[in-house]
Amino acid sequence: MSRALGAEPRAQAAVIIKSERVRAAKRRAALRTLLLPLLGAIVAVASSLFTGVGWAELAAFGVMFVWAMLGMEVGFHRLFAHRAFQTSKPLEAFWWVSGLMAGQGSGTYWLAAHRRHHAHSDGPSDPHSPLCRTGRDGTEKLSGLRGLWHAHQGNTYTDYATNVVVFAADALRNPLYGKLDKQAALWVAVGMLLPAAAGWLAYHSLVGAWSCFLWGGPLRMFVQHHTYFTNASLGHVYGEQAFRTNDNSRNNWYCALWTFGGALQNTHHAFPSSAYLRQRWYELDVAGFAIRLMERGGLVWNVHRPTPEQLDAKRLART
After folding, report:
1. What is the pTM assigned to this prediction?
2. Most CB within 10 Å of its CB: which of 97, 172, 194, 195?
3. For residue 113, what are the CA distances in angstroms to 119, 125, 156, 196, 271?
4. Is the dihedral of CA 29, 148, 114, 104 positive or negative?
5. CA trace torsion 188, 233, 255, 296 (10° rounding)
């Protein structure tokens, strides 16, 4: 169910900051965020050709990938952007910090951009639709590889900045979130220094610490960026539409493996405040499983899930 291009529920001027100066600053930030992990990933692979890769490097990569991915999908996405459940202030701080460790910028801007995506999904003011974009001269239709690239990463360089005041006023009013966002660089560094410390303990050498730093830090971050970005690119082109929505969102089960359930985009867009996205046996929702564990342990409450009647009302007939 695709939205016709140009159908916009909100005035565009309130959605984006249509300033070339601000867009240029956003582009510079995107280049730092994406190119530095790429350079680190290249160094990590090159170094491994000489030093080899041991269990400690693989463990550093795996532990930090799971931690930061849960930080984005459980924390930034389901808890903060959609308020799919409630939890205590200490756990809110933990999940915000965990999301920051992924290195995708401030939490406030992350959730503002994501809420903008939902408000204008696959319309011109969607920040990362594979179908269209807002350019300097107006709406541009996209398709094929060009659309996939724009949705996956190209938008970070070309899209106008999201109006955070419109989409994240609640986060701007929260002093805890603001304080943690000001420390974003610190928490990114912590997410890279922890693997280095683990490497020192495992190998008792600077070479081992450096190798684990590279694998658990920039290489992990590079892989994490591009696996999570498939939510916007592949998740809005390939897969199944199980529920009625006003966009081109899809349930992409294989991308859901590495996005911890985030690529079950059609279910998510049909029920954005749901903490759980798995509806079929072959769909994996690791983030939903983590929330369920916290719910059973009494760590979270008011967990949202659609009722059977709500599911049936939006369910599409299988072909």
Report:
1. 0.92
2. 195
3. 10, 11, 11, 32, 18
4. negative
5. 60
